[in-house]
Amino acid sequence: MSSRENRAFEIVSSFIARWALPNEGIPLYMLWKGDLDFDLIEVKTPGLFKIRDYYNIIKKYPNPNEIHVDELNTPGYLGFVITSPLTESVAQEAKIILNFIKESEVIHRQEFETRIVRPKIELYVPEKVEVLPAEETKVDIKLKYTGYGNCYGKIIVSEDREKLVFDVKDLRDLFLVMANFQTFKQFLRKCKISEKDFTGSEIPEEQYDYRGFLIHSTQLTNFTPANFFESIKTIVENKELMGILERTIEESADVATNLFKAVIDLVEKRPVEGVFLVDPQIEPIELNVGERRLYVCIAYVDEFGNYYAEMKTIPIVLHEKQRIMFGQDWEEQAGDWNWLRNK
């Protein structure tokens, strides 16, 4: 506290969200009691951060990375929502500073610290591939997930760089329903399927542990595919997901078994805990004789819809026309959530 700061002044509470994805709103506020006689509040944010919303502020004067506030609606409170730009780092600390100024002197300084986090997929490909005659060739692509949060993506390999095109909306819609349902029971409840739709009064506890998903197997009664689609349409907009569910349900009258199959099909698209893929397999490519060049791209979005992509090139030499297969080798190195929670 500065010598010029009012002695009656006291911080009642202050808050900032501990972490956020790029472009996601970061709320912060400060509540105090007592008279704090200031001419100006200077709000400073790092780099390309932006102040999106203001609360209890009447007059403000924006400057690059900061705003000047000289009048509040009600004394003793102010709040903001701040957003950050995209970042290469999977975790980046950021500091927001509020300076209360009287006659050009800072009489109170309040600091807020948060972290900007993101998921990241690193792509590794062979430096060069030579395909020998009459030899079936499989090119292994290595991918490493690091950082924080789920991401939804697609891998494309093509000889034509112009074909590395992604529909960002499709990526953003991908698995938004299934990604957060860790149990089959939760999934059914989200679909507004009630206990009366099951045999007996409670859902049986028989379950399968499939790659981290607990999926309940149960016998449904009074429940038809038509009823299912009416109830699920309100939360599922992704056509691919609806197609998977429809195909599996049509194969048998046993709705529960087929719902289970549908969930398994979706989980197969999850190579590591934090990644969901549009297509779990990379399509083979026919290449002609000579020195060729393959372009490999992984494009993905995080849960806020931020788009990321990385592309690599593989020089490849063929002595005869060949069909090239592709394999994926995934590694996961997720961020330390305890570090975020305990900061």
Overview of this structure, please?
With 343 residues, the protein is an alpha+beta fold. The N terminus is likely disordered. The strands form five sheets. Strands 2-10-9-4-7-6 form a six-stranded mixed beta sheet, with no helix packed on it. It folds into three domains: 108 residues, Immunoglobulin-like, CATH 2.60.40.720; 118 residues; 92 residues, no CATH class. Helix 4 packs across helix 5. The chain has six helices and 21 strands.
Q: Share of helix among residues?
A: 10-25%
Q: Please outline the major beta sheet.
A: 6 strands, mixed
Unreliable stretches: 1-5, 174-185, 192-225
In what range is the share of β-strand residues?
Answer: 35-45%
How confident overall, as mean pLDDT? 75
Radius of gyration: 27 Å
> For the terminal residues, how far apart are their CA atoms?
24 Å
User: What is the total tally of β strands?
Assistant: 21
As an assembly, this protein is single chain
What is the 3D shape? elongated
Describe the structure concisely for a colleague.
The protein has three domains: 10-117, Immunoglobulin-like (Sandwich), CATH 2.60.40.720; 119-166 and 273-342; 176-267, no CATH class. By secondary structure, it is α+β, with helices and mostly antiparallel strands. It has helices at residues 168-173, 184-190, 225-232, 239-250, 255-267, 337-342; strands at 10-16, 19-20, 26-33, 40-44, 50-55, 57-63, 66-72, 77-83, 91-102, 105-117, 119-124, 129-131, 137-147, 151-158, 207-210, 213-216, 275-277, 285-287, 290-302, 307-318, 322-334.
